[in-house]
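Weekly modeling sync, notes
Attendees: S.R. (lead), two postdocs, one rotation student

Agenda item 3: backlog of single-chain predictions. S.R. asked that every request posted to the team notebook include the full sequence so nobody has to chase files. The rotation student volunteered to paste the first one in as an example of the format we agreed on. Action items at the bottom.

Example entry:
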Amino acid sequence: MATLAHILQVVGWWIAPLVIFLLKRESRFVSFHALQALLLQIAYMFLLFMFMGLWFVFFVLTVAQHPAAQGTPPPAMFVLFPLVWLGFMAAWTLMLVIAIVYAIKAGRGEWAEYPLLGRLSRKILKIGPGGTAATA
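Predicted structure, as returned to the notebook:
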């Protein structure tokens, strides 16, 4: 189930890790990995929405500054749109690689932590390194 939490985040976004996290609360190992995947997806969605907001603002400002009388789109759009698309594809590829790597680690039984999010997951679940009970 821990492996599934990582792999299913690619197609199920935040829903699959959330379902696994809620169904397998009794297992510290599965809860830890599912919570990491869930937190990663939340951070990813937050960054994507923030980036889309910035893109929208830039788009509106670029179109507003471009004279409409010419009847052509602003030249910045021809440069910026492919860069934005490449950025989204790079982010998705990074998420795919992270999901595969940590799914393999979870399948091996490792308590592998995402950078930053692993520590936060342990703190939320009140478990120490390696799944031990957290000390106060």
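Discussion: group reviewed the output briefly. Residues 2-62+72-131 form one domain.
Action items: rotation student to repeat for the remaining queue; S.R. to check formatting next week.
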